[in-house]
Specification:
Number of strands: 5
Largest sheet: 5 strands, parallel
Shape: elongated
């Protein structure tokens, strides 16, 4: 046994080294092979957009090959038309820029007067004050005067000096050289487009065959898991592409129409750029908005066109991002916002502008792979939108750090949907179970125990509707370090309502007792149940077994006979506390014969199968959660609308 102990760290270190080397090799392959990988990835993603149209053509009755050719031909026609339209608009904008030169000069001059001119004036006035009451500075020595500032021609209306005529030379390039330059510039995009088109055709033709090959290669004999992963990825990517493409296309049309109405030239170009760059997460649409705003400021003499352009982009983007997108697909891509931003930076560094456009779908594929492949689970944790910790784990972690405010923020969000009893059952008690496990293993220190206790006390009191902020602040320093959490919370109520947590002269059958068996978990559970019932306007009181003996030893002439209608006996560990539970039930039955005894027996959190406990004849009802216990009290005390004293 001792000989095998050192092997584990060595093995883990070697595994980490293998993972690092493999990651470096993958990054190198992605970077140096981008010339081949980018067209293939583009073709695969385009196939997800074209595949629905292929299936539609096949339903009409066309063959598979004919459906693929028709869909690809339609895609080529649409893309070529858009490229031609954008190119025409770009040429038109480039030719029309010289006519806006006067407007640009006027606005630059106006901006300079409003900014630099005012700063120069203030600097001169400040210099006079510093030099002593406006007497001015000493004259500079002869020969050392600073050269006068000469404004450039574009800041003034003065005509620029004519440049000397150049010596006659070659007037123009021959047509063949011009054609060569044009072809050399357009060759790379045309080459990439051709490769993408060819790969797209074959991907669509062999769609089913490629899927089967990938399942056989990645899944081996586990066809179920691989099929589930592929279906998940296909569903998420298809939903992402269709919804995003539809929304971005609609945004482009809206911007096109809006800019046409307000009078911005070349509105189709700006609408197409908006639709295209909106695929870049978060910043793409605002880059186009800045460019269009600058263009609007250049084409109109005043500033109204610029203001209307900014308002248009703000209105359209707010409506789409806050109303339309959540309604259509609810941001369910499965990626966290930070992961989207980091992915955009990473893929743009790796593959340039194409990587920036494909960053979200590529990262989505990695998250889906991490969700279904155990070795890649790190990707799902880092990039996915699912919480890395469960709610009980987050409460326990923040309690160790003493961060009560963050726990309260999450608790109030939870309470908007469900009750406080459900929060205790689903979050608070499981979190304290984690603390109990660590305490039993000696994994938390005394300081951490105190931090957990103070935080939980603060949270429970803050969520109590009967506690005021002033009362909670005044009592915060009175938490007894030696008392359990439940005992500390109970003492706070005793300070407000007395030793027996309320008057003893009450209507008959109006009091509910919550009895813990003495452990820390039992005391806290009984106290939480007491607070839950008091929030329901039920006169609930938290007692211990020793309190029964103390109550009998004291005279209580004002106590109402038969005041207790129900008694909850709480056990957080029923399997280990069966004897103590039976003794407590027998004591309650002997002292309060007419009370309804309800056993609150919490299930073991780590148990896979719920164990059946021996029945107790003195117990009227058995519940397994605080929420069920509250429902029992509401059913037995329907007149619980009266406020607790």
């Amino acid at each position: 046994m001792s000989s095998q102990a050192p092997a584990s760290p060595a093995a883990s270190a070697s595994q980490r080294a293998v993972v690092i080397v493999a990651a470096a090799c993958v990054l190198a392959l992605l970077y140096f092979g981008r010339e081949v990988l980018v067209p293939i990835v583009l073709a695969v993603f385009l196939s997800l957009l074209v595949a629905p149209w292929v299936r539609l053509s096949r339903r009409v009755g066309l063959g598979h090959g004919a459906s693929v050719l028709i869909a690809v031909l339609a895609l080529v026609v649409v893309v070529s038309g858009l490229a031609t339209m954008i190119g025409t608009q770009v040429v038109h904008v480039a030719r029309s820029l010289p006519q806006y030169e006067v407007t640009i000069r006027t606005k630059v001059k106006s901006l300079r007067e409003e900014t630099l001119g005012r700063l120069d004036f203030l600097q001169g006035e400040l210099g006079k004050v510093i030099d002593g009451g406006g007497q001015g500075a000493a004259p500079a020595p002869a020969g050392t005067a600073a050269p006068a500032f000469v404004a450039p021609p574009y800041l003034t209306n003065a005509p620029a000096e004519a440049k000397p005529a150049q010596a006659p030379g070659k007037t123009s390039s021959p047509p063949l050289a011009l054609l060569t330059r044009v072809l050399s510039t357009a060759w790379v995009p045309l080459e990439t487009a051709g490769i993408v088109l060819v790969v797209l055709i074959f991907v669509l033709l062999e769609h089913e065959s490629l899927r089967d090959r990938f399942i056989r290669l990645a899944g081996g004999t586990d066809l179920r898991a691989t099929t589930a992963a592929i279906n998940d990825a296909g569903e998420r990517l298809s939903r992402f592409f269709i919804s995003t493409f539809s929304v971005n296309f609609s945004v482009g049309v809206a911007i096109w129409l809006g800019l046409t109405v307000i009078g911005v030239p070349s509105a189709p170009l700006w609408g197409a750029l908006t639709a295209a760059l909106r695929f870049v997460p978060y910043i793409g649409v605002w880059l186009v908005a800045a460019l269009v705003s600058l263009f609007a400021a250049a084409v109109a003499p005043g500033w109204s066109l610029l203001a209307m352009t900014i308002v248009l982009y703000l209105f359209v983007e707010i409506v789409v991002s806050q109303l339309i997108e959540p309604f259509l697909y609810g941001h369910t891509t499965g990626l966290s916002p930070l992961a989207v931003v980091v992915a955009a930076i990473f893929w743009s560094w790796l593959w340039g502008p194409v990587g920036l456009l494909m960053s979200t779908p590529l990262t989505l594929c990695l998250v889906v792979a991490g969700r279904h492949v155990k070795a890649l689970d790190l990707l799902n944790v880092l990039l996915g939108d699912a919480p890395a910790l469960t709610m009980p784990q987050r409460v326990y972690q923040r309690a160790l750090s003493g961060d009560a405010n963050e726990i309260l923020s999450e608790a109030r969000d939870f309470l908007k949907r469900k009750s406080f009893a459900a929060y205790c059952d689903a979050v608070l008690l499981p979190a304290l179970q984690l603390a109990r496990v660590d305490l039993g293993a000696g994994a938390i220190s005394t300081v951490q125990q105190t931090s957990v206790k103070r935080t939980i006390v603060t949270v429970v009191e803050a969520l109590d509707s009967h506690e005021s902020k002033w009362t909670r602040w005044r009592r915060r320093a009175s938490v007894l370090e030696d008392a359990s959490i439940g005992r500390s919370l109970r003492l706070h109520r005793e300070e407000a309502y007395g030793r027996w947590q309320g008057p003893l002269a009450v209507p008959a059958g109006s009091v509910v007792l919550c009895l813990g068996l003495g452990s820390v978990a039992n005391d806290l559970s009984a106290e939480l149940l007491t607070r839950i019932l008091r929030d329901l306007h039920i006169d609930a009181r938290h007692l211990s077994i020793d309190d029964f003996t103390a109550f009998d030893a004291e005279p209580h002439p004002d106590a109402t006979p038969n005041a207790v209608s129900m008694v909850y006996v709480v056990s957080a560990n029923p399997a280990a506390e069966q004897g103590a539970f039976d003794d407590a039930v027998a004591m309650v039955r002997a002292r309060i014969p007419g009370a309804c005894i309800v056993g609150v027996l919490f299930p073991e959190p780590l148990a896979t199968v719920e164990t059946a406990l021996p029945a107790n004849a003195d117990v009227n009802e058995v519940v397994r959660s605080l929420e069920q216990a509250a429902q029992q009290a509401i059913a037995r005390i329907p007149e619980s609308g009266a406020a607790v004293a």
